[in-house]
Give the backbone structure.
Amino acid sequence: MDVYRDLKVYGTQKQLDNFISHLKSNLSAGWDFVKTSQDTDSTMYEFLYQGNKTLPSVKLWMTDHEADTLYVNNVLPIVGNELLQVDYNRIVENFYQTNVSPIATELGLQSILTPDQKTLDDWLSMDTAAKLRQFSNLANKSGLHPLDQKRWFAFLVAVHQEHTEFNATILHHWLAENGWPEEQMWKLVLEYEFAQELLDFIKY
């Protein structure tokens, strides 16, 4: 399924401060540094992309909120309120390839840009992913039968035990891509959220 790409740079605080200093001074054409802002536990770095014939102009923010990590945490269009996912990914890729990656490599720091596509196996173990696929493939999508419910419950318990980043939003996208009607899909998403909260409560 289509996902938003993550861009991260890893290093000590001193190394990341040095990286930002180099980045601000060596931005590629079309990119400008705007300002630095701070709160109690993190620093935000704001950049401006001028855009081109195929990409809109945007503001992009990097933050050091995670320990020993600098990452893109937001990209917003200058005009309008919404940025298409495909444009978000292309802009982050442009920022990575033309600015972040060359400077990180020069300084000996690790940087990553995650793919724009993921499958269930990127979030779930093979066994848990198989449980969800089995449920979806065998279920009566217009209304669950008792055996469908048992397979669904088996998945809910299995995914809770994994402490995975798989969440209701990801489930919604996956169900939509696998032919579930809107009403039944939202019912399953709400059941997923409730089940995870209930299992958390029972556990603790």
The longest helix spans residues 85-107. Helices lie at 13-25, 85-107, 126-138, 146-162, 168-177, 182-203. The chain has a mean pLDDT of 94.
